[in-house]
Amino acid sequence: MTDPTIGRLRVNGATLHYEVRGKGPLLLLIPGGAGGAAAFDGVADDLAAAYTVATYDPRGMSRSTLDGPEAEQRVAEHADDALRLLDLLSPEEPARVFGMSSGAIAALGLLTARPERVERVVAHEPPLVEVLPDAAEHRALPERVREVFRTQGLMPAMAEFAAGLAKGGEAAVPKAAMELPPQAAARAERTMANLPYFVERIVPSFMLYAADLHRLEALVDRLVLAGGQDSHGELPYRSAAFLAQRLGTEFLHFPGGHTGLTTHPAEFGTALRKAFGD
Predict the structure, then answer these.
(1) 164-193 pLDDT, tens per residue?
(2) Which one, of 273, 146, 136, lies nearest residue 204 by Cα?
(3) Out of 163, 166, 171, 224, which residue is the most buried by the measure of CB atoms under 10 Å away?
(4) Residue 108's Cα: distance from chain center in Å?
């Protein structure tokens, strides 16, 4: 794996850790969940053959520190962080942007706020409850997860969250932990350390985010919505599919499920290049 160029960027209320590889037009990759820049380790080098690939830890995650550790998190602020990275790394030209899960929600916020800075956004399974026809059944999930976290702890909260996202409300039984290579183990450790912040601060504000659908309709030529071919029926997949239907645009299928980037990295990278038309 190629060592990236590492940088730090001051933004409003935080300092972002970012990494850059390759040459060519800028491709900004926005991680989801409790992941950071390392979530893209499996695809970054291959993508860097065609793009200047920028990855980063979202504010409050891993190496991106908050000025105020208890600060509430808003999609608009996370979208502005992505904009600041675009302005730094591609000040003259609009960029390609990929976001996954909660990162896809930040990418949609960026597109609606500053479309002139974006050539195309690929949004993979943004879990937007409000676009679902049965939204009322799911609005209580984020607060329920946070309450379970506060009263029972992290793992029960994550089980509640997984069940709420799963098809039919039943999460798969977790597989036994296996020994990981050092780099993957370090990545998993950072992800675990990020989970309390994710549950408390990201899940409630992002899942209930009301995307500007009229604005997205006007920008649909710059937007690609996608879902995992193995995640039919799950809440994030349904959200992305219903949003594509609402906007009257094509819905692409990527390899794997919600975490296809991790389980099928090579195939996922190929699908991503095709989604950008390259």
Answers:
(1) 999 765 444 344 344 545 566 667 788 899
(2) 146
(3) 224
(4) 10
